[in-house]
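Checklist before submission:
- one chain only
- standard amino acids only
- sequence pasted in full

Submission:
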Amino acid sequence: MHHLGTSEIETQRLLLRPLTLVDAEQMYKNWASDEDVARFVTWDTHASPADTRELLSLWTKQYDRPDFYNWGMVIKETGQLIGTFSFVAVSKRDSMAEVGYCIGKHWWNKGYVTEAGQALLAFGFNEMGLNRIQAVHDVRNPASGRMMEKLGMTHEGVMRQVRLVKGVLVKLAMCAILAEDDQRS
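Returned file contents:
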């Protein structure tokens, strides 16, 4: 396994690319300020575009690191920034990464997260040499679990009271795929 950092990846409909401070307005408007989008995640909605700029300022400083992986999902046809897809945890020792994603609700159920996920699994297995890619989802959010299944991930179990989300310790379902299981290779 080797680190490559966040490089541009193109899919049929999307450009996956590093985020910039210029993205703050679209990120704030398209998902970061939306209570429905933030319902099952640990972060709170952004109160203003300044909050979004502050977060993007932190992220953009990390893009020089080869072990930082955080892509903005942009619809190629419109240039609209619709969400993010990240390797939120990477273990070189274990040859494993955990993915996280977020998308504005206007683009839910249109296949964008699955399309981005397929490209990033291929990147992780074929370019980085990962052996395992995993993801977790709040059990109250079954749509996220269905997306993981579409990526070929196997449901491995449920962890009880494992993460504090909006003041509640929630159950998280663990899903994963191994390089030997991946059909994209």
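Reviewer check: The mean pLDDT is 95.
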